[in-house]
Amino acid sequence: AVVSTQSTGKRRDTDDDTGVFSYEKFNTFESIEGELKRIAKERSDIARLETIGKTYEGRDLYLLRVTHNITSKITKPIILIDSGIHAREWVSVSTNMYIINQ
Q1: Model pTM greater than 0.85?
Q2: Which candidate, 12, 10, 14, 30, places its Cα nearest to that of 22?
Q3: Fewest 10 Å CB contacts: which of 3, 66, 78, 89?
Q4: 44 with 34: CB under 8 angstroms?
Q5: Side-chain half-sphere exposure of 64, counting CA atoms within 13 A
Q6: Average pLDDT over residues 49-70
Q7: Which are the contacts of 90, defined by CB distance < 8 A and separation ≥ 6?
Q8: What distance in Å separates the CA atoms of residue 69 and residue 19, rounded to the nearest whole number?
Q9: What is the DSSP string of 26-79?
Q10: CB 12 within 8 Å of CB 5
């Protein structure tokens, strides 16, 4: 499937047909959300997905906590890596998903 962009009139590939997260093209919110939930479920020993608020459009804002001991209270300094802040920054989401999966 393709999504039209208003500013350039160009089209970009998306994952709309499969809903599967891709590291090579623009992902929909639903595929990103699904991938975060999959990671949190499959790696519940080191990952926990939390909702930290809502977007202007009413979508959940997620935080994925990854640590060697998911049940412990945070006592050490942390690193925060955000992505997807701007509508067209698809590569930052793919980069962070790659880091998470390593």
Answers
A1: no
A2: 14
A3: 78
A4: no
A5: 25
A6: 90
A7: 25, 26, 27
A8: 31
A9: B--HHHHHHHHHHHHHHTTTTEEEEEEEE-TTSPEEEEEEE-S-TTSPP-S---
A10: yes
